[in-house]
Amino acid sequence: MFFTDPIFSTTIWASSLMCLTAALMGVIAFLQKRSLIGETLSHATYPGVLIGGWIFSLFFADSFLGVILGSVSFSTAALFSLRYLEKKRVSQDASLCFVLSTFFALGVLIASRLQTVKASLYQQIQVYLFGQTATMRDEHVVIYAGLSLIIGAFLILFFPRIKLLLFDKEYARGKLKHTFWNSALSLLFIVSICIGIRTVGIVLMSGMLIAPAVFARAFTNRLSHLFLIAGTFGAMCGFLGNILSIVFSLPTGPVIALLGCVSAVGALIFSPKRGVLFRTVRILKFRLHTMEENLLKSIFKKEGASLAELNDFHPIHPYFLKLALTRLKRDRFLQSSRGIYSLTPEGNRKAVRIIRIHRLWEVYLTEFMGQSVEKVHRSAEEMEHIITPEIESRLTDLLSNPRKDPHGAPIPGRHDESILG
Amino acid sequence: MSVIFEAENLTLHYDKQPVLWDLSLKVMPGKLVGIVGPNGAGKSSLLKSALGIVKPISGRALFWGKQADQVREKIAYIPQKGSIDWDFPITAFEVVLMGRYAQMGFFKRPRRADILATKEALEKVGMSAFADRQISELSGGQQQRLFLARALAQNAEVYLMDEPFQCVDITTEKAMIEILRALRSAGKSILIVHHDLSTLSEYFDEVILLNTSLIAHGPVDSVLTEENMERTYQKSHCLFVEAKELSSKKTKGLV
Questions:
Q1: A226 touches chain B (CB under 8 A)
Q2: Which member of B69, B94, B170 has the closest CB to residue A174?
Q3: How far apart are CA A345 and CA A329, in angstroms?
Q4: How many domains does chain B have?
Q5: At B240, is the pLDDT very low, low, confident or very high (cuts 50, 70, 90)?
Q6: Is A239 helix (H, G, I), strand (E, B) or coil?
Q7: Of A69, A81, A145, A315, which is least packed with CB atoms within 10 Å of its CB?
Q8: What digits encode the pLDDT tens for the residues A302-350?
């Protein structure tokens, strides 16, 4: 029923488009590692929105253009203040805080004045604080959508330039007009904020800038895909957020921002490559792997051991110990008879290799990194599980295949079956 | 032969601390030049001020008599590993493709020639198999070779490299040196910030010994004298810096 209603349909599409551009520009800030700048620049629009709206309401029936001009100019002023402070060596987060609170405080002062002088206008303008799409008029929709499309087209046309500029500033020097492109991107960033606050609101704007980038980064390693996913995701949040806000008569901004941020957190948890969930699984697998290798090592040194003996040496829950032993037996690194575990030939080779890497690493630390002999064991305990055959061969070359470790113990050769071999 | 790179009385400060002091030198074409000096001697700063990335307070650095920005497509710069954002969503292929940037048209869309040149450059450094990897998934040595490939794709005349052998295993280092020697034979000049003193005479034609000011510049054997090395790596230089620092603090009223 909402789709058939002409008022809702145009505004919803425009608002989705606004979220899309915010998401695209947010990717840029995210990659520049300046995610918080959106927060500061959007809060800085507040006095601009009020002053612009106020001035225009004196001359025109619709204060809309005043709001846009005001917000763009105040946000730009905030950006210049940030640059100035950073040039004066104020740290980045301090200057972000400082500029945000100064501009927003100014806005709150003006708002309280406006409330007493011109209450109706004050009511209208408060929409920008938390966002509201339903009250957008047709001509606003056209302007917002038009600006969004311009930003989108700019990004698509000049994508290679933007990529170069974002990835490698120093390489970009002399290849493109640095100041021009940086200013262009900053201006578009500001415009996208000033468009976005109508839908999402000043207070929550930064969430809508960054959440799509965070979401998309969890799924891709390519810049073009990053923009595509973030843009689509932003638009979808805008669309769904609008519908939900109409159905449950809630303010649009918080609904969109919550949708965006909750999904971004979801992506951070469930993403296959970088997600917390799969990473935890990989960490647990690695721990098990480490324990298995340590077990092989101790069985090798003891030349066979019982479960109780092993548990003395590896004080972990017997359940995990049994799990590791079962896996090792299944993979035929271990065999057991009458409760005594001993190594198969393959298990033996594996244990010798672990000891070899341990001792090689100790030689490397003492000879090349200048560490004292007593201190190297700990690091070697860790590295024996980590070093790949490739690094092993590099180590062997670098150390010219040593035969003794710093403690005087022999280092088995690459294909040796036993330590003395 | 015409001079490729020339620095004239180059002086550079960071925070009122001198990093380069009245440095003048000339580099001719077809040379492999090592830049050597202790930490903080201004080696990287020499490259950066040559490229115009940092502005000297006096003097100038010119390539073929021009500012670096004007002839930038003829200069390839391989930055120090630490200055790259390795987490950036970009593949090895895309990084090397950036080398073709100057040749591309207004919208910078790669054409078949650019893609071919990129593939060739990756092939030369033995990285074809890793073209589609995201750059953080490459090993240290591969990462360095990647930026060498970008420089090759650029087809530059001068190569400025900031510690390209950092974290590179010995086989890769030798392979990279072979590539650089081939470039030198083709008349290109290569300036390399280098750490390993033991390989200086094997790798380079000329050495620039640097410790804020120029200690010596010339053929490896004539430069690597005991006296020069002592002057380069001496401790007394630190005193100069310390005193200068103290003086700048005093003038600012900080002590």
A1: yes
A2: B69
A3: 13
A4: 1
A5: very low
A6: helix
A7: A315
A8: 888 888 888 888 888 888 888 899 999 999 999 988 888 999 999 999 9
